[in-house]
Amino acid sequence: MQKTTRRESRETAFALLFEWSFTEESLDEIVELAQLARDAQVDAFALELVGKVIQNREELDLLIERYSQGWKLKRISRTALAVLRMSFCEMTKFNDIPVGASINEAVELVKKFGTNEEATYINGILGSFERVRKGLEPAPPQREEKPTQENNLNQQLNEHDIQESQQKQIGENSDQVELIEDIIIEVE
Q1: I need a labelling partner for 142 at 20 to 30 A (CA). Which of 68, 94, 131, 187 fits?
Q2: Which has the closest alpha carbon to 67: 127, 135, 145, 134?
Q3: Rounded to two decimals, what is the model's pTM?
C-alpha cells in the first residue's frame, strides 16, 4: 500500500468536509459513504482533521466570520468554507503543522476545486489571522448582531408580553385596593 502525502490527505479531508456540509451526518457515516461510493482511501491524518473540524465547527465558524469581514457564512461557497474550516483547524488545533504550509495548501486546494478569486480571498483571511497571532496587526472587531426582521419581531413580542404582564399586575393591584376600601368601609 502506497503511503499518502499530506496533500492527498487534505484533498480527502476536503472532500469529506464538503460532503458533510450538505448532510452533517456523523464522521463514521460520511467516511463509510465515501468509501462505498468512490472507494475513498481515508488515512489517519484526514480522519483526525475532519474529526477536529466537526468537533470544533462553532469555534472555527466564529473565526471565519470574524476574519472574513463583512461576509456571513451563508455567502461563502461550500468549497471555500470547507477549506477555511480545515485551515483554521490546522492553524489552531495542530501544533506540528507549519502555518505557512496550512495557508499554502488551502490556497492550492481552493484553486483546484474552487476559483482563483476564492484562493485570493482565503489567502487574505488566513494571512490576516496569522499576522494577528504574531501581533503584527490588530484583530478585526467582533461582529455585532445586526437587528433582523426576526429579531425585531421577537423584541416586539417580548415588549408586548412585558406590557401585558404589567397591565395584569396593575389590574390585580386594583382589585386589592378595592378589597381594602371595602374592608375599611365595613369597619367604619
Answers
A1: 94
A2: 127
A3: 0.73
d(Cα 114, Cα 17) in Å, to the nearest integer? 14
Q: Are residues 99 and 149 in the same domain?
A: no
Do 106 and 171 reside in the same domain of the chain?
Answer: no
Give a yes or no: residue 152 inside a domain: yes
Domain that holds residue 186: 145-188
Task: Give the end of a domain, one of 133, 155, 177.
Answer: 133
Q: Hey, is 145 helix, strand or coil?
A: coil
Beta-carbon count within 10 A of 91 CB: 20
Give the C-alpha distances (Å, rounded to integers) separating 52 from 115, 139, 152. Answer: 26, 24, 36
